[in-house]
Design brief:
Elements (H helix, E strand, L loop, with lengths): L1 E6 L5 H13 L5 E6 L13 E7 L7 H8 L8 E8 L6 H11 L3 E9 L14 H7 L7 H13 L22 H19 L2 E3 L8 H5 L5 E3 L3 E3 L8 H5 L5 E3 L21
Parallel strand pairs: 1-2, 1-3, 3-4, 4-5
Antiparallel strand pairs: 6-9, 7-8
Helix pairs in contact: 1-5
The structure holds flavin mononucleotide and iron/sulfur cluster (2 copies).
Length: about 270
């Protein structure tokens, strides 16, 4: 059975979980391929039997640019999808929303996981020697319980994919997995913060004009010439801030000299 793990990761958390799933799912039964969203041609999805889709939670929801991508996503051969998200505190309505979107696209959502990870929105504001930064560096990521449950579900459900029985595993959109009240407040606060934050990106004098930020920005929002310019299309994924080799990209003044994060293994390096 050919399985595609497709994900978006800004700072490396979602990519870590995608790799974890691949490792724990690997067996003779599955031929598993793993791709970041921005490097995958979506028309190729129809070559796979099942899809495992992962995204980071932004403002208690699916990031808007991923929602746009999912509107036009083709189905896999068996129309089956398993969904996971990574979050810092609350995934809010994101999984419920993802189930709805995939159903609209013709999929049978068959399982999900919601995985707690360090919050990519706040990491660059932490002091490098703070107790919080030490705590995060020392988190044991070797076992992700919620993901193990999803992996077991994938192994179980995929036995039924080739016959009509699979319908009975299909998730209900009304599943009690959303805290709508908390989500709606956070979404409103996020919209206000978002516009303000996007205008605060700049590169300090440590920049060596290597253009890495320009190459890895998923929104094509950065241009490096005599200086580094940021456009108005930022997804706020935080990738550029954490990936700049000189730690030169700042959001206002409060990130200067602060903590940077390259995923749980410290090796996240998005392909360009
Ligand atoms: C713009 C932005 C908004 C976020 N909003 C939320 C949120 O509403 N709830 C939450 O639990 N985590 C939130 N986070 C944290 C991320 O979902 C979390 O750190 C995720 O694991 C990041 O994954 P990545 O490293 O693959 O990008 C947010 C992060 C960013 C950058
Ligand atoms: S990645 Fe950093 S050093 Fe390289 S061009 Fe961008 S801001 Fe400058
Ligand atoms: S400019 Fe915005 S979208 Fe581009 S990498 Fe930086 S945070 Fe992400």
């Amino acid at each position: 059975m050919k399985i595609l793990i497709l994900y978006f990761s800004g700072t490396g958390n979602t990519e870590f979980v995608a790799q974890y799933i691949k490792k724990h799912l690997s067996c003779d039964m599955f031929d598993i391929e793993l791709f970041p969203l921005e490097l995958f041609k979506s028309e190729n999805i129809s070559k796979y039997d099942a899809l495992i889709f992962g995204f980071p939670v932004y403002a208690c929801d699916i990031p808007v640019f991923i929602q746009e991508y999912l509107k036009y996503i083709p189905t896999t051969k068996t129309k089956s999808v398993f969904i996971f998200c990574t979050k810092a505190l609350s995934s809010g309505t994101s999984l419920k929303h993802a189930i709805e979107i995939f159903k609209k696209a013709g999929y049978n959502p068959l399982g999900y996981a919601d995985v707690k990870m360090p919050g990519s929105d706040g990491l660059a504001f932490l002091k490098k020697d703070s107790s919080m930064a030490h705590k995060i560096i020392n988190i044991d990521f070797s076992t992700l319980e919620g993901v193990d449950i999803l992996v077991n579900r994938i192994k179980e459900v995929t036995k039924y994919l080739e016959n009509d029985e699979v319908e009975r595993f299909c998730l209900n959109v009304n599943s009690n997995i959303a805290n709508s009240f908390f989500s709606s407040i956070l979404k409103k606060a996020f919209i206000v913060m978002e516009g303000w934050l996007k205008r605060k990106f700049w590169a300090d004098r440590n920049c060596i004009k290597c253009k890495k930020c320009e190459r890895i920005c998923p929104a094509n929002n950065i241009k490096v010439n005599d200086k580094v310019s940021f456009g108005s299309n930022c997804y706020l994924c935080m990738r550029c801030v954490h990936q700049c080799p000189m730690e030169a990209i700042q959001i206002g003044k409060k990130t200067v000299g602060k903590f940077r994060w390259r995923g749980p293994l410290g090796t996240y390096n998005p392909k360009q």
